[in-house]
From TrEMBL:
Keyword Membrane listed: yes
Residues spanning the membrane: 62-85
Name of the protein: Vancomycin resistance protein YoaR, contains peptidoglycan-binding and VanW domains
Domain YoaR-like putative peptidoglycan binding residues, every copy: 266-366
Coiled-coil regions, chain positions: none
Alphabetized UniProt keyword annotations: Membrane, Transmembrane, Transmembrane helix
Spans annotated as Disordered: 1-56
Biased composition (Low complexity): 44-54
Native source species: Micromonospora pattaloongensis
Pfam family, one: PG_binding_4
């Protein structure tokens, strides 16, 4: 008996044919009652002789078994070839895309193509609900995406998984990635306040008495749980429900009580003596209470620490007797030349190291003595830095005049501001702010009441007259060729100022700023007489000259007459015409114009204010 297979292997329907076996089965059905077969030579119904009956039958059975085994091997080979074709099991799909029988590379390309087809939908904001609030999360903002390589790896499975290989794959869910931290931040931003906030544990001080704040759990977001919900629900087409979980602070009530008993209470029971190379200082209990922090982090864990800024403020008077302030190098103008005053380093108690020493000694009832090191404190500007700035000549100067002498409140304010700004150093690339440099200009800073423009009319106001100093400074920097950052001309034009290129100021809303856009340092030098204020800029010249050209005045308007209630706050004026005008700042270098900058301003007509009742 021989087995025959088809000439070509059909992987979709492997077959094995056994024609001889089917013939034998037919003959057996026609056998005699004695079990003999046609052609047997034994007596009817009698057992066949061992030598002539069982041996052929056993031979035939062996032959059939061999044929079946051979067929099984052939069939197994065909099925194995079918099952292991490609890297992905037959019948495997991802996002509805058939990947069965594909290689990794083919499956990756097919999945990428499908994602590209769905790009608009995958980039669309994802609706999420948090505690009944609905928000939308943009996938790109939280790193939400399908990991193609990981998805293909999941679809491929293991080569040893024979059942899957043999009987086919299944729908494989895409592997979705998301940045849990970014998602958590975005959910909190988009959904706003939700859940129940935890009561964080703490120990606070009322004076020098420690008071416990016991923790309570709350409900809120858990970054990993939120990420898991978004990973699982993103592609489902429905709003993703973000779960709220119960949150417990890391430090419990027992920990709070322990900190009160073992640290907070002993900490303020007695002072701590600190020894340095320049003498001793004492940290009293009140200073300890102001600087010892026993508050929790975002996880509710109390990590004791010393607030160095608070400690420095609490013992500032004692530190002043020990520490040495550094001295910045400065530039002053003397005898028509810039002169450098050298810098000097200072010394400061190393509070960073001291904080650790304090935390170690505060729980102790005695032996409350620590040593603190003094660390060098470098000046903000060294002598070497000043020299490298190349400040060697006066680049520009500008003068304006005032009446009334130095005893006049307005003149006093101008001179006070000038003294404050004198010697100011502006390094390359830095912006100078007049408001920022002088700070508030009130009575406490030595300024007096003088006329200011408020709501379109002159009224008494502290610091009146500073606009004249501002205009003088603006023009000095203007003609030095420095970059104008912010300036605002007056509402009305005053003849003591050049039109258009002038500036008012009002703390803190109106400021004057310029940028040192040169590679050299800039020093502001101020001087005054009983009737004038002068500002000079010292640096190194970048331009041969900076000049101004004005257009004719246009759109001229005349003032109206306004009657005001007589009294100490009423200031009469003669009125000023309004007009519009342009001014061009012209830069020349190497004998030719290299830049032209245009300024334009519209002045309102200042009314003729009369401190009297309006005539009938």
């Amino acid at each position: 008996m021989t087995a025959h297979t088809p000439d070509a292997f059909d992987s979709s329907a492997p077959t094995v044919q056994f024609p001889v076996v089917r013939a034998e089965r037919q003959s057996t059905a026609e056998s005699t009652p004695g079990g003999g077969q046609p052609g047997d030579r034994g007596e009817p119904g009698a057992p066949a002789a061992a030598s002539g009956g069982d041996a052929p039958r056993r031979g035939r059975r062996a032959l059939i078994a061999s044929a079946v085994a051979a067929a099984a091997v052939v069939a197994a080979g065909g099925v194995a070839g079918y099952a292991y074709a490609g890297d992905v099991p037959r019948g495997t799909t991802v996002l509805g895309v058939e990947l069965g029988g594909a290689t990794r590379a083919e499956a990756t390309a097919a999945l990428r193509a499908e994602l590209a087809r769905r790009a608009d939908r995958l980039a669309a904001p994802v609706p999420v609900t948090v505690a009944g609030k609905t928000a939308r999360i943009t996938p790109a903002s939280v790193g939400l995406a399908v990991d193609v390589e990981a998805t293909v790896a999941a679809a491929t499975g293991k080569k040893s998984d024979r059942l899957t290989r043999l009987f086919g794959g299944h729908e494989v869910q895409p592997v979705v990635t998301v940045d849990a931290a970014r998602l958590d931040a975005e959910l909190r931003r988009a959904a706003g306040t939700f859940g129940e906030q935890m009561t964080m544990p703490a120990v606070v001080f009322e004076g020098i008495t420690p008071k416990p704040v016991y923790p309570r759990p709350g409900k809120g977001l858990d970054a990993e749980r939120s990420a898991q919900a978004v990973r699982e629900g993103w592609l489902g087409g429905q709003a993703v429900a973000i779960p709220l979980v119960e949150l417990h602070p890391a430090s419990d009530a027992a920990e709070v009580d322990r900190l009160v008993a073992e640290l907070a209470g002993p900490a303020v029971a007695a002072p701590v003596t600190v020894t340095t190379d320049r003498g001793e200082l004492t940290i009293p209990p009140a200073a300890t209470a102001k600087s010892l922090r026993l508050t929790a982090d975002k996880n509710g864990k109390i990590n004791p620490r010393i607030d160095q800024k608070a400690l420095r403020a609490a013992i500032a008077g004692q530190l002043a007797k020990i520490e040495v302030k550094p001295k910045d190098a400065t530039v002053s103008i003397s005898g028509g030349k810039p002169r450098v005053s050298p810098s000097a380093p200072g010394q400061q108690v190393d509070l960073s190291a001291l904080a650790g020493e304090l935390l170690a000694v505060l729980p102790k009832p005695d032996g409350r003595h620590v040593t603190a090191a003094l660390k060098p404190l470098q000046p903000g500007t060294t002598t070497e830095e000043i020299v490298k700035l190349g400040i060697k000549e006066r680049v520009s100067t500008f003068t304006t005049h005032f009446d009334g002498g130095l005893s006049d409140p307005r003149s006093h304010n101008i001179v006070t501001a000038a003294k404050k700004v004198d010697g100011a150093l502006v390094k390359p690339g830095k912006v100078f702010s007049l408001n920022g440099y002088t700070g508030p200009r009130g009575y406490a800073e030595g300024y007096k009441d003088a006329p200011v423009i408020l709501d379109g009319k002159l009224v008494p106001g502290v610091g009146g007259g500073i606009s004249q100093f501002t205009t003088t400074l603006f023009n000095a920097t203007y003609y030095a060729g420095l970059e104008d950052v912010q300036h605002t001309p007056h509402s009305y034009w005053f003849s003591r100022y050049p039109s258009v290129i002038e500036s008012t100021i009002f703390y803190p809303t109106l400021d004057f700023k310029f940028r040192n856009d040169t590679p050299y340092g800039v020093v502001i030098d101020t001087s005054f007489t009983s009737s004038s204020i002068t500002v000079s800029i010292w640096s190194t010249k970048v331009y041969d000259s900076v000049t101004t050209e004005w257009s004719p005045r246009r759109d001229i308007t005349t003032p109206e007459t306004v009657y005001l209630e007589p009294g100490p706050t009423c200031i009469a004026t003669d009125g000023i015409n309004g007009f519009t005008q342009d001014a061009w700042r012209i830069f020349r270098k190497g004998g030719k114009e290299v830049e032209r900058e245009k300024f334009t301003w519209r002045y309102l007509p200042e009314p003729r204010y009369r401190c009297a009742e309006k005539p009938a």
